[in-house]
Amino acid sequence: MARFLVSRLAGVVLILLLVCLFTFGVFFVLSPDPAVQICGKNCTPELIERIRDNLGLDEPLLTQFLTFVSGLFAGRTYGVGESATHCAAPCLGYSFQSSQPVWEMITDRLPVSVTVAVGAAVLWLLVGVVGGLVGALKRGTWWDRSAMVVALAGISIPNYVFALLLQYVLVVELEWLPFPQAVPFSEDPTRWFQNYLMPWIVLAFAYASVYARLTRANVIDTLEENYVRTARAKGLPGRLVIRRHALRPALTPVVTIFGMDFAGLLGGALITETVFGLNGVGKMTADSIARNDQPVIMGVTLLAAAFVVVGNVVVDLVYTALDPRVRVRSA
Amino acid sequence: MRAGALAAVAALALSACSGGGPDGGGGPGGGEVSYADTPATGGTVTLLQNADFSYLDPARGFDGGVNNFYRLVYRTLTTSAPGDSDDPSAVVPDLATDLGTPSEDGLSWTFTLKEGITFEDGQPITSADVRFGVSRSWDPELGIGSPWARQVIDAPEDYEGPYRSGPLETIETPDERTVVFHLKEPFPEFGSLVAQPNFVPFPEGSGAGDEFVGDIIASGPYTLDSYTPGSSIELVRNEAWDPETDDVRPAYPDRWNIVIGLDPATIDERLLAGQGADVNAFGLTIQPATLPRVQTPQLERRLLELPSVCLTYMGMNTTKEPFDDVRVRQAVNLAVDKAAVRTASGGTQLAELASTILPPTVGGHRDYDLYPSEGDAGDVEAARALLEEAGVGDGFTMTLDIRSQPKMQAQAEAIQQALQKIGVTVELNVIDVSSYYETIGTTALQHDAAITGWCPDWASSASTFLPPLFDGRTITEVGNSNLAQIDDEGINARIDEIRAMTDLAAANEQWGQLDEEIMELAPVVPLVFESSLALPGENLTGLHSSPGAASGGIDLVLVGLRDPERG
Questions:
Q1: Residue A285 domain-assigned?
Q2: B373 Cβ neighbours under 8 A, 6+ residues apart
Q3: Do A75 and A110 belong to one domain?
Q4: Confidence (pLDDT) at B6
Q5: Tell me: the pLDDT tens digits for B188-219?
Q6: For a Cys-Cys bond, which of A293, B41, B65, B111 suits B96, CB 3.0-4.6 Å?
Q7: Mean per-residue pLDDT of chain B
Q8: How large is the ipTM?
């Protein structure tokens, strides 16, 4: 077990370094010159030079990369003398657009993305798994068909269309909810809940659909397995058969994709956050891409990668707990 | 100013780059909401925005959106006249008692500070604070805002701002209330230049490193209550600000709640609905896509038109064949169907035809049309004749650089169709929004023509409009704004001549003249002056467009509520 963990963690570090190198390559080498972009109108060559110097863009690429990586672990200092600023580890640099430290920008916005992800995850697991179960157990009935039609809609309607539609219906037409606007939980819990409700529904709708279909297919498959037939033949009550023998193996694949989906979502829900004006990591990502704010793009890419990679490891661990077969093999 | 040119602030720029006019208030048409009423004092005004302001630090920020915001919290020696004044393009005294006095040789300018002006902590603003604030512009890290101070004020070659090099000796402070600036060359419009955001005073020693990234030291009527980057800015009254010293800012509301990061479609949806506290909310502009939904009597009366201070134009690269021939450029000017371009820009409500380079709201503007046509639909015959004369009667193929943005693509297609009629095949080169200005500003990457826009840094004259676009000596390899790359001795000489004029009214007359002289050489095709529309909440008033402070957008310092108790 310990060896398994160590090897997985080493893999995590390696993957993150590769992601680092790759994003650095893509955003710093291939994209337009940030100095010219910052300079904007009324730009002079002298000013461009000054910005380049300041951001360390005149250094060789390898030096820039190494400075970036060492900044992650040891922090780095920008500028000299009284106006110098120290960026403490883990230093992801400063936004080209707003001069704020990227690490701080991320940590400020992460709670919003986590709230979105957790709320949506609860909702979609509940709706998706229950919907899938109902579909599987009442296969071919009206229940099953309508659940699957809704699921199909959830998969096929683009997120932003559904989001705007939902907002139009719930807020503008029915006036059941106010327009979303960030309010801290401590200040007004009701308003806070109303603010997150639509993002949760929008995200959960898309994910729940996938989960419902997956659960349904898996449960149907397991119900046809020999051991289930055996359990039934033993005279075990139907409810117990489903709970003990069918559900557990049927849900392990759901755990796998849930780990990945949830980890991915922690890195920010770009579209949902943007549509509802939630100041999360996803919206920040969208903004920084639009503005070519490379340090921020770099930071969130790393963060999202870290979440997914770590999520993967966690899934593996949970898997060993859930499925004795895996446990045996890895031991 | 980079508002018009920087994709980074696309959403802000949209508003910043449009609008402007002597009177933003509701027109005389019966039943319209009048936004020109004087607001009552008190209440909270809410501003809904998509993009965050670029920087709280005025040494760094420099675009139409943020300049407007700065006026709520900062003061400068002079500033743009409030949007409701007789001449809103003018520059008026702010911290200084007048627009400054030049020395005999024009090389030094003296300003006297008003009495009773203070920072938010009650400390008086002294001449040393003014010098300190301006000198921050030379700091290599901070000084990325307005370039004017560095360009015009004399400074030692190796000066790097107050934190590294100490006080700037070329700005003298003989006593607490007197500041003397020494210039590289005479600059008759220096009184307008000191209205630039980087002339905001700061207490000596403050603002090093990233201190002003999340905080401010207010000198204006409001100060920061809270700031959540990407989410909100809340302003409260700066109790130390003395209204007696300020003729520009009536400061009606008690609080400002600026909500950032909202989806533009959601902002419009909120303004259309106008529910609850949203009667006190406004956005700087509505999306063109929202326009059809505003065509109801109740909503139409709430519309506020903000005419333009910026020009949308097509620059022709005069270093490339056949655009090196003036007749070809004139032919293109004649052939372009401007009425179609206007339709592509959103129709008459959102765009006004341009035949001049200078918008009507910029000082010096004079009406003329050198390339007229029936219904502004293009004069195909006259254009063909000129092409024939130039030896390209069979037409040619050209590449037009445009931004990957629906409106600009529609404008380009309108040009494409019009030029087809004179045998010119236009190939569109669509460039990503985020790298557009960088690409067309790099002379080596520029194609035959490009569509872009320009807004002045101050609206009181054309000195920040015509020279950056047409002075041949300012052409640079990167960050170039002279898209036509025209280097004409006549134009260059005229620019020098007008710049040296100390009588600003006479100079404006000459700028207007030069506008026409440049168009005789036809380096650009003026397309449209793009205006914008706002749909403010019905409890708002005091909404006036300001060409100088807001690039034609709503002048924030005049905004207030009719009834502070509502919403």
A1: yes
A2: B334, B379, B382
A3: no
A4: 34
A5: 999 999 999 999 999 999 998 888 988 999 99
A6: B111
A7: 89
A8: 0.75
**Are A36 and A175 in the same domain?**
no
Whether residues A162 and A73 fall in one domain: no
pTM of the model: 0.83
pLDDT one-digit tens code per residue, B126-142 = 999 999 999 999 987 78
Tell me the C-alpha distance between B232 and B218, whole Å: 18
Question: Average pLDDT of B256-273?
Answer: 90
- Together in a domain, A208 and A122: yes
Residues 273-292 of A with CB under 8 A from B: 274-279, 283-284, 287, 289-292
Q: What's the pLDDT tens digit per position in B469-510?
A: 999 998 888 778 899 999 999 999 999 999 999 999 999 999
> The dihedral of CA B407, B409, B412, B413: what is its sign?
negative
| Token duo for residue B383 | 């254009």
Closest CA to A39 of A54, A24, A27, A26: A54
What residue in A sits closest to B140 (Cα-Cα)?
A: A50
A81/A106 same-domain check? no
Q: Based on the domain organization, do A30 and A147 belong to the same domain?
A: no
- Domains belonging to chain B, first-starting first, are 311-530 (3.10.105.10)
**Whether B438 and A167 lie within 8 Å, measured CB to CB:** no
Asked if the structure places residue A95 within a domain, the reply is no
CA distance B96 to B81: 14
Domain containing A296: what range? 102-330
Q: What residues in B contact A275, CB-CB < 8 Å?
A: 263, 265-266
How many angstroms separate the CA atoms of B237 and B223, rounded?
A: 6
The beta-carbon neighbor of B163 closest among A51, A82, A287 is: A82
Which residues numbered 84-143 in A keep a CB inside 8 Å of some CB on B?
A: 84-85, 94, 97-101, 105, 108-109
Q: What is the pLDDT of residue A294?
A: 82
Which of A36, A98, A275 has its CB closest to that of B479? A36
Q: Nearest Cβ partner of B228 from A80, A98, A279?
A: A279
Higher pLDDT, B564 or A46: B564
Residues A306 and A250 in one domain: yes
